[in-house]
Amino acid sequence: MEKPQRNWDTKRVQKAQRLAKISQLMTGKYVETDQIITVLEALIAPGDKVVLEGDNQKQASFLSQSLEQVNPEKVNNLHMIMSSISRPEHLNIFERQIASKIDFSYAGAQSVRVAQMIEDGKMKLGDIHTYLELYGRLFIDLIPNVVLVAADKADKAGNLYTGFNTEETPTIVEAAAFKDGIVIVQVNEVVDELPRIDIPAGWVDVVVPADKPYELEALFTRDPQNITELQILMAMMAIKGIYAEHGVQSLNHGIGFNTAAIELLLPTYGESLGLKGKIAKNWALNPHPTIIPAIESGWVESIHSFGGAPNMGHNPGGRRHSTPAWQSLRDEEKPLGKGQKLVVQMVETYGSNKKPVFVETLDALAVQEQASLANAPVMIYSEDTTHIVTEEGIAYLYKATSKEQRQAAIAAIGGVTPLGMTSTKESLDQLRQAGIVKLPEDLGIKRSDAKRSLLAAQTIDDLVEWSDGLYQPPMKFRTWS
Amino acid sequence: MEKPQRNWDTKRVQKAQRLAKISQLMTGKYVETDQIITVLEALIAPGDKVVLEGDNQKQASFLSQSLEQVNPEKVNNLHMIMSSISRPEHLNIFERQIASKIDFSYAGAQSVRVAQMIEDGKMKLGDIHTYLELYGRLFIDLIPNVVLVAADKADKAGNLYTGFNTEETPTIVEAAAFKDGIVIVQVNEVVDELPRIDIPAGWVDVVVPADKPYELEALFTRDPQNITELQILMAMMAIKGIYAEHGVQSLNHGIGFNTAAIELLLPTYGESLGLKGKIAKNWALNPHPTIIPAIESGWVESIHSFGGAPNMGHNPGGRRHSTPAWQSLRDEEKPLGKGQKLVVQMVETYGSNKKPVFVETLDALAVQEQASLANAPVMIYSEDTTHIVTEEGIAYLYKATSKEQRQAAIAAIGGVTPLGMTSTKESLDQLRQAGIVKLPEDLGIKRSDAKRSLLAAQTIDDLVEWSDGLYQPPMKFRTWS
């Protein structure tokens, strides 16, 4: 076997060469705020894989705005990896031909523009990933050359404090730091002593004080004022018909008003059912202010704020999690039968756009075609969804024994949507008898009891009061001066 | 709504009270080696959830041996959380009634004793988890009171260097440090300056110099000398019939001789097929010395050594990973069809214990009964396994359209096992025609070509030579002085 001669530190040498180009601009690990464009032009090479931190809350906004201003003749053809496309400059860098390819997880408000740019050939799409998949691949086959992240504070040595808004910063930094990638951090503030070191200076290459604090959107704030009585009814059904029924102890909530209503009913309706200490104790939850009353009244034992988003609608294979809830979905007749994570979809039959929520064909297929995706970007597959709650009732989909029965169960709680209209009284009766569908009356819930007065907090002010003034709402949610 | 008065820092106060008990014994964060038993008795309270670091390689052996020696009248009824039960004292602490409950992932050599202790009521079992599940729950509902971990080096301030054997140390430390748990670390060495800070001192409460370095077992070392020609044949089939067929680029290997043979055939057989640069580039792999020739000959672009073990046999729902391999398993006829991760089981039809590998009933069911488990501890479920390779051929299970066809395909490559004997020539012919089973001849592989001379390294010495002396094999693998 003849062994070819190889240079084993190409990546390390390349990193050192790039950093040497800016040595005149550096004081320790620091560069001046107004030098950042020069720095980016020196450290980022054409074709690089670049991670730009920006999830649905926290944005490395100074660095993204700076990246937009680099000279496309020096920096171009970048392969961007971003969990969320949320700011205009995230797309402007493609317009300016600084970047040409993207892997991402969420586009939200920018998704129309994204689709158009893909169609126009201005942007080449890797994939629309789950968050976990995207972060995982940073360590495998999307290893970044440069990462651009944000921290709250840095000390003189370059140690970082990411504080309450850590999010995925450590993961992104780690993916680069241990593979000779370059780590560039914008910081809000430089201090002598950090409250805590979250990321050691040794993992960081360049620190730049930002012109202003990174953008932070309080995405998880839901004003209780906007919770409707229909949502309260659905929340009552979820608490009694799902949480109590299955003994759900560890859980995660989406950010809609439906789940906000659940949180706000625990200290009232939940308490009246004697469920305190029995359900909803251990939370994986990003900071939802509507959870405050449940915390203050002693319902919540722990919260883990995960940042980014785990793969919520996904039941991990090989998992053994013999909690009452997981175990309650096990098919006892199969010796190798396994439990299942409960994935509960809460939807009103007509969404806020006045369109029926149950459709023949998902928009995901149109997106797939328009963006020439290899796969339709479905977030949660049918086989993982165990329950659907609408204002009409609950479909216990996991109990359905055929695809047809599953569809009938969805139709039975589909209200006056086209799908709902296909349901017959016979079908509904059969499904209720089999326990596959439950209406409010089957759960002993009176529709007329679903009143806003049941909410533990009816306004943002109430949340502040529950917290003894500890909760400081974002400015746009304040009704007082 | 009346709000009960609550004390919001019970955990922080409790932690401070415990640490105050040993303040006389501490110099900075350090305690003396011979004081550790007193320290453990002061810091661990009856009923605590305690994580003891010990995976299949790295053991916090000084701390586990010390825990075994605490006074059970002071420390008892512990709920241990350990990824691996591997050392005698891991069970002795249950014999001595220091601990009473366990959640774990792997027992290996200790599993007979574990089952007996459960049957005898000396040990109460939480669950046998996947590694990811176990680590995940440290942040949700198995939040530890105390964690006992190991590091290579610490500096005077208590910053830690975990170096090449980081494994799950940072995850365990994080789970405790951010929830007012107590972090106790044994270190091999105290130095003035660390090569790198892996864990900041602020996350650590107590550092103790160990009496000797933590135990480290080179679990992933496979001596090429023991690779058989049958295994080489199977490896050839895997390379040509699976890796080349599906264009597998990102991958993970188990630690058996079957997969060691694959690694060692890449620079020879793989090269002869013109596959270099096309397959097996990005690895998630713990340190397998048999990968050295593939690295040195330029096959490997990256390796991420993950520590612990990801959920290898598990195809994450909602994943979009449109690599050629993942995409090649997509059912094109379904508009919402999705790709699938390839999960390849490589087994000889008769295992090393001379028993048939295909059985009517899994041992997991007996384990479940004996240990009164809520679920049978199956590691990889049938629906996740996409291919099986035996010395007879490959079953492309993902192509089977029914459970019966799946079983027939397994029987067709089942050799002279009882299951294999049920296969008929007609069935085999049909399966070959449908491309569901391929024999070596279908792949253009001659059985007589499967020679040990194909291995890029035939001995441990060869691996050392490939590495230019960089690889230092564990003592027991050395045949020279």
Globally, the shape of chain A reads: globular
Structural class of chain A: alpha/beta
The residue-averaged pLDDT of chain A reads 93
Radius of gyration of chain A: 25 Å
Helical fraction of chain A = 25-40%
Q: Identify the most extensive interface between protein chains.
A: A-B, 72 and 72 residues
The count of strands of chain A amounts to 17
Structure description:
The structure is a homodimer of 481-residue chains. The first copy, chain A, has 481 residues and is α/β, with parallel strands linked by helices. Helix content of chain A is 29%, strand content 15%. Chain A has helices spanning 10-21, 36-43, 61-67, 88-95, 111-119, 131-137, 169-177, 229-246, 257-272, 292-296, 324-327, 363-370, 403-412, 418-421, 425-433, 460-466, and strands at 49-52, 58-59, 78-84, 99-106, 124-128, 146-154, 160-161, 182-190, 206-209, 215-216, 250-251, 282-284, 302-304, 344-346, 387-389, 394-396, 437-438. In chain A, the strands form 4 sheets. In chain A, strands 1, 3, 4, 5, 6, 7, 8 and 9 form an 8-stranded mixed β-sheet that branches. Chain A has a 4-stranded mixed β-sheet with strand order 14-15-16-17, with helices on both faces. In chain A, helix 9 links the parallel strand 11 (250-251) and strand 12. The mean pLDDT of chain A is 93. The interface between A and B is large, with 72 and 72 residues.
